[in-house]
Design goal:
alpha+beta, 2 domains, 3 helices, three-stranded mixed sheet, globular
Length: about 140
């Protein structure tokens, strides 16, 4: 896995993966950034939300569940250390749409966060990761 980061201006950067996918990153205005992209810490939250969503979608498909939509909201609390800060609490809220069995949804979420999602397994070393979910039927 390789990521290339190009400096655009000030704190504004563009990251590209080997497949050509692009993400803009930037710092806050407090440190000279333009706030024209994700901060690196926001990318961590997006990573855990996206990683678990990919797992959950795959698991629910295998269970032949009628998933029509999924929205993920990730909220992280940071604690300052000596020269840096780290996430200490991360809450992931999943909002599902479809004719879904709640027990299968809960199992899919737990399998992802506890077993399959490499990002959550990495972040759990410093963070308490919790979740909640809602299911909306059409």
């Amino acid at each position: 896995m390789k990521i290339t980061i190009d400096h655009l201006n000030d704190m504004h950067m563009e990251a590209q993966n080997e497949e050509g996918g692009l993400i803009r990153m930037d710092g806050s205005t407090e440190i000279g950034g333009l706030e024209g992209g994700f901060s690196p810490m926001q990318l961590l939250l997006a990573g855990v939300g996206g990683c678990s969503a990919i797992d959950i979608i795959g698991i629910l498909k295998k269970q032949r569940q009628d998933l029509q939509d999924l929205k993920v909201e990730v909220d992280g609390d940071r604690q300052s250390k000596e020269e840096y800060s780290e996430f200490t609490n991360i809450h992931i809220k999943y909002t599902f749409t479809g004719d879904l069995d709640p027990s299968k949804v809960e199992r899919a979420i737990n399998l992802s966060l506890d077993k399959y999602c490499s990002v959550s397994k990495t972040l759990e070393k410093t963070s308490d990761i919790t979740h909640s979910y809602e299911i909306h039927n059409n």
